[in-house]
Description:
Elements: E1 3-9, E2 12-13, E3 19-20, E4 23-30, E5 40-44, E6 56-58, E7 61-63, E8 71-72, E9 77-78, E10 83-87, H1 118-132, E11 139-143, H2 145-156, E12 163-167, H3 175-189, H4 206-220, H5 223-230, H6 241-256, H7 259-270, H8 281-285, E13 291-297, H9 305-315, E14 319-322, H10 330-333, H11 335-347
Parallel strand pairs: 5-10, 5-11, 8-9, 11-12, 12-13, 13-14
Antiparallel strand pairs: 1-4, 2-3, 4-10, 6-7
Helix pairs in contact: 1-2, 3-4, 3-7, 4-6
This protein binds acetyl coenzyme *A and L-homoserine.
Acetyl coenzyme *A binds at residues 45-46, 48-49, 66, 220, 241, 244-245, 248-249, 252, 329, 332-333.
Amino acid sequence: MGDRRFLDLGPLQLERGGTLPGVRVAYETWGTLAPDAGNAVLVEHALTGDSHVVGAAGPGHATAGWWPSLVGPGAPLDTDELFVVCANVLGGCQGTTGPSSAAPDGAPWGSRFPAVTVGDQVAVEAAVADALGIGRWRAVLGGSMGGMRALEWAVSRPERVAGLFFLASGAVASADQIGTQTTQQAAVRSDPAWAGGDYAPGPGPVSGLGIARRIAHLTYRSDLELGARFGNHVQDDGRFAVASYLEHHATKLAARFDAGSYVVLTEAMNGWDVGRGRGGVPAALSRVSARAVVAGVDTDRLYPLAQQQQVADALGVPLRVVPSPYGHDGFLLETEAVGVLVRELLAS
Ligand SMILES: CC(=O)SCCNC(=O)CCNC(=O)[C@H](O)C(C)(C)COP(=O)(O)OP(=O)(O)OC[C@H]1O[C@@H](n2cnc3c(N)ncnc32)[C@H](O)[C@@H]1OP(=O)(O)O
Ligand SMILES: N[C@@H](CCO)C(=O)O
């Protein structure tokens, strides 16, 4: 684990209206910030990720990291040279203000938590950068939902982003993505324990969140991989192996993630359109001045290559294709191939 800290920011005006009276941000860093702050890179996590890019063993527990081999001495994000920052996203549940955080009255925000956008999330990160004394990132990197924030940084604050790594993501939410995410939200809301979003602290709507994760996880993997691993095999316990696998991931997510955050973050993804208010996607992408590496996973059925091709074409760079049997989760699993591309960006 990196050096995990918290920052308390002032009020935040939200794009869709309203204000959060204060925002707490949990963030981690690795490496040492250079005196001129020119060696800082920002890593953006995906939907259910957090600031733990690298995992660590702790007393009686282990913290999982989600890109562990990408950060460290000699790694693609080489901490002998770079200062690596990752912050838990606004609306999340791993230390940054979200629906499970206490509102000013001391009770969880719950259903009162306002709608937030990718732009709001990046505004919070910009305040973190200001607080750390980082004027310009050497690179901002992200996959999936993290790719949205990386692209938003490069479009909204081009003078602050020297390098952009955009992976397995899109410039605007597709009907397919909105369709699966709103179905996941419906699963959460259909759980009686959801209580309109105002469930008591504790397990909460774990059944609804688990069903949401099963639906989501199917979109994160490929038909071919699931077929090769599970086929129509029925386990000794009578369950289809693939159903047992999905249930396992459902149980794990429901134990580690807040249902309110799941709804708020998927809604931010539903509303994602980098071209909104900027004259459309091509006009928005024309603002980017960063060197860019744009990549996708060949078997990704959730964020198909055409979505990264659109960004690559607009930025005038070749689309880099990561071969993988795993589908969308290839962005987390194919760390060797992803690492090569990260090194390429930082070397240029
Ligand atoms: C960037 C981010 O922020 S994302 C946050 C990253 N972490 C997560 O999302 C956690 C959820 N997991 C995932 O999304 C993906 O599984 C990944 C990408 C993290 C890992 O993928 P893989 O290494 O391919 O793992 P896979 O999907 O095969 O799952 C393995 C698990 O399934 C279990 N499993 C496999 N087959 C079965 C089965 N038939 N029945 C029940 N469980 C099964 C394994 O025991 C293993 O359990 P464990 O993870 O508790 O040890
Ligand atoms: N496994 C990832 C996939 C979403 O991009 C997550 O849970 O965030």
